[in-house]
Amino acid sequence: MASSLITSVRLLLVLLFLLVGVPLSAFASFSPLQHDSSSTSSSDASQVYIVYMGSVSEVSTLDMAVNSHINLLSSSLGKSQEAARRSLVASYHKSFSGFAAKLTQREAQAMKGNPSVVSVFKSQKKQLLTTRSWDFVGLTASSARSPTVESNLVIGVIDTGVWPENPMFNDTGYGPVSSTWKGECMLGDNFTIHNCNRKLIGAKYFKAGIEQYGPLDNTRDFISPRDNNGHGSHTASTILGSVVEGADLYGLAKGTARGAVPSARLAIYKVCWAYGCDDADILAAFDEALHDGVDFLSISLGSFFPVLYEEDSIAIGAFHAMQRGIVVSCAAGNSGNSMWAVNVAPWIITVAASSIDRQFYSPLTLGNNVTIKGTAINTFVMEDKWYPLIPAAEGTFDNSTDDLNFCDVGALDPKKVEGKIVFCEEGGFGGVDESVVEGGGKGLVYSVEEDSVAFAFLLSASLVGYAEGEQVYKYINTTSEPVAKLLPCEVSTKEEAPLLAYFSSRGPNIFTPSIMKPDISAPGVDILAAWSKNDSITEYPPNLDPRRPDYNIISGTSMATPHVTGAAAYVKSIRPHWGPSFIKSALMTTATPFDPSKDANKDLELGYGAGQINPTKATDPGLVYDAGYSDFVAFLCTHGYNSTTVALITGETNTYCPKETTTPAILNYPAIFGAFTLDLKGDWYTTSRILTNIGDPSNLTYTGKIDVPTGMEVTVEPMSLSFTSFNETKSYNISIRALGLGVGTTRVLSTALIWYNEIYSVRTPIVAYLVTF
Question: CA-CA 20 to 30 A from 17: which of 188, 272, 477, 720?
Fold first, then answer.
């Protein structure tokens, strides 16, 4: 905004769009969705609130649930039955209990006092937070598979819907759907029963919550499970897309596309619309998905800020999913270092985004024959000749009041820009490519702080870093008639991968500092997967971008999350009897460590968690940290919930919290996380863990090994664990302190405890970090 103010707005837009996983160039054609701003409104104004009531105590029909919720509203608030009915927005009754209703602040406060209510919170909007990527993490086409088990797995995706005609959702070779499946395909705009098949076995949409902001516009949305945006099709196909040879984006990234578990079944739950993704609809999707019988849920959306567990629709739904043995993977968010990770409940697998060993380059050659290797998803080929190169400041209208370097929409004068390559600087309100196209420009050179992620543009373009931007600017200023060429896009190997994506939200978990978040990383940079034929690759409208391919290349933790869902499903297909805790532990303890010496990885486990997924290795981890349903119930007790509230959440009347005080650190998590303040960094942080033996052979001894960095001390007792039988458990105690925290710029120190023998290596991250919140 002033120059710094504008930069701040620009940053906010970048964060929002990366969370969605859409191209940077789409800024001008999309209005970013903010959280509901009604918190500033009068206490007499009605807003939609979620009234969460815990587990379902008894089976009920929708009519029974609606009548019960109307009676509760009427008796608690003194409303007539008719007034209560009018205020009711949605009822949840299949998998957990609760409802959404239009309430004033006073009424919401009154509902909180009802003994049958766990929590009451505003329903707000959440943001929508691969031919090569599976090979990169070791899950190749030749990896061991169990097709029969895989074909019985149902993956639920809560997102923007699906484009069912995409080749990656073809059901050739599939057998009949299991008789235990309870889902269905809802009909609607451009969506009939024939759009489902033996692969896409369920498709539902939810709009009662979002419609409280106004009716949906069917010129911007399909009022059906059909995907208007592309995001949902992209995430779903990453998990279980059928094998498609020759998949590419206009010749880029050409290869054989496939998901992690291409024989699995898909159930789509559409909750995201042009106006956003509402909490009330997200809870409705969870309620249906759990009842339908999904085995996994992949959720590439989340709040802009972390939300308390009891006020977070995703945390609530995921708890009840975990209760039923369903693995839930969620995006950590795309706010980089500026915000904390979201979706941090410990029963969720929280996913960071990392790079793969592939980079898309869009080279820029200056008239002095210096070539700069910029990045872009460049589907255009310019004529092989020199074009005049001008800075944006020389191409603006004479009376322009905009910052002359930013290329804001409407700022460029066609008389000055037509037929030229325009050099723009980061910092405006977006739409730089639209601005250059409007002015008749032939190409764009865009100087940005981070050029490690490629985006598609409306014309030939090259993203360059600040240092390279200075090089371009210097050439322009020292040359009487500067010229340049934008060369065709190149795809090359990036040897230093994996690197943490700059946009991936960092930890720690601000609600439970002793629980590591994010949990794990997965490919989320420049991922090719299925797309909606209703949307362009830049998400500009058809008059600006007519390109409508079957596939698109985008980035975000939205893209990383389905990789983890797919990895978890692959593990389940090989180990069908494993539950969520075994799968999560196996993925984390077998993850590939990052190289901490790389600048992109400087935040260590606060950025990338346990490391990058290694799906095949996770099928045989040797030992696991088992933290099941009862452990998470005990965890709730450590968070201040009393026995009555915990009983409501679990639906078990015999649930009691212990009288003695315990801490969340007792949760048997596959990582050791110590939060320190400057005045207490010399104190010892002590906890314990339990390992379960699932290795083969079962009679093995594991020896502990730690490479402790300077400034950190770690003790483990015992340092040897001997197992004699399958499912046998052994515990160890661990203490850490970190005098090196706060020295210079050091805010995090880490190492790993590795339990190893000649067959297995079980890696447990150990982290000490400085609390700054």
Answer: 188
